[in-house]
Design goal:
Elements lengths: L7 E3 L6 H16 L6 H8 L10 E6 L2 E9 L3 E6 L8 H15 L4 E7 L3 H9 L3 E12 L14 E4 L5 H12 L10 H7 L11 E6 L2 E10 L3 E8 L8 H15 L4 E7 L5 H6 L3 E12 L1
Parallel strand pairs: 10-11
Antiparallel strand pairs: 1-2, 2-3, 3-4, 5-12, 6-11, 6-12, 7-8, 8-9, 9-10
Length: 296
């Protein structure tokens, strides 16, 4: 399958990042009324272990204007966007097939996309292409009409900001906790660094740690993006059900309010079993998504 006349495809470069983010967010604004992507998000994915900038992302251009893009991360997780002005011309189908070909080329046995449940036209196209639902994910919000109560960690737990000597321990804690999810592929330490401590704009206060007798037993990575976004949240298995996660979240809620934001957000999915925890503390589902996968 070829692209429509007048369009070309080539690997993205660092010089394309801002235009790619702007184009992807124009899609989000049209489709959902919200912005979702930051430059730092792309850089974090592109800095992960094994990512090949010569082959793992692609842009579709009309002259110098980017009108579509796709990316493969961790051999099988795909992102695809087409500018609203260029939809219905086969660009999205070309990009979907590119993600499938690239996943095959790196030896993956499957490829998948996560789609907002309101995007019925995309869901229809993926279903026709024999993609099937593999899971559900949600964005949840905690609204802040009044200042939240300060965090109260359980006895024996101290909350503090990240220090440089903490890096390997806290990232290993995240990996251990997330490795409990069924079917999850291991994430190398260098990829964790790219997503967290080496993320563009990272500050020590963005990574809040729960510490018990000098041992890191939990953590929350907070991103300031016109709200506080809880990007990573984990508690060591031996310290769960004691209020550590609640204390970390409460720190995020207070920070969000104090910075003038009306809410705090995070995402979770059906593999984690954490949805009920967030709902019990008062968070509400803001958006829902379905993960669609194709066996290769």
């Amino acid at each position: 399958m070829s692209l429509p006349e007048g369009l070309i495809a080539r690997p993205l470069t660092d010089a394309d990042l801002d235009a790619t983010v702007a184009m992807a967010n124009s899609c989000e604004l049209r489709d959902t009324g919200e912005l979702m992507l930051e430059r730092a998000d792309l850089l974090a994915d592109a800095g992960g272990d094994g990512f090949d900038p010569r082959a793992d992302w692609v842009g579709v251009f009309e002259d110098d204007r980017i009108v579509g893009w796709a990316m493969i991360v961790q051999r099988r997780r795909a992102s695809v966007d087409v500018h609203p002005d260029f939809r219905g011309r086969g660009v999205g189908t070309w990009l979907r097939r590119w993600t499938e070909d690239r996943a095959r080329a790196v030896g993956s046995d499957g490829v998948g996309q996560t789609i907002d449940d309101r995007r019925s036209e995309v869901i229809t196209l993926l279903t026709i292409a024999e993609y099937a639902p593999t899971g559900t994910s949600w964005i949840l919000r905690m609204d802040h009409e009044d200042r939240p109560q300060p965090s109260e960690p359980p006895d024996g737990i101290q909350l503090r900001a990240f220090l440089p000597d903490d890096e390997d321990d806290v990232l290993a804690m995240f990996e251990r906790a997330f490795s409990e999810w069924a079917g999850r592929q291991p994430t190398p330490l260098d990829s964790w660094r790219s997503m967290v401590t080496q993320r563009e704009g990272f500050e020590s206060e963005d990574l809040v740690l729960a510490v018990a007798d000098r041992r890191i037993v939990g953590g929350a990575f907070l991103i300031d993006a016109d709200e506080i976004w809880v990007d990573k949240l984990a508690v060591d298995r031996a310290f769960r059900h004691r209020g550590v996660a609640r204390a970390l979240l409460q720190t995020a809620f207070v920070r969000s309010f104090d910075r003038g934001y009306a809410w705090t957000s995070l995402s979770t999915d059906s593999t984690t079993g954490a949805l009920s925890l967030y709902e019990r503390i008062g968070m509400r589902i803001h958006r829902s998504f379905t993960q669609y996968g194709l066996d290769l």
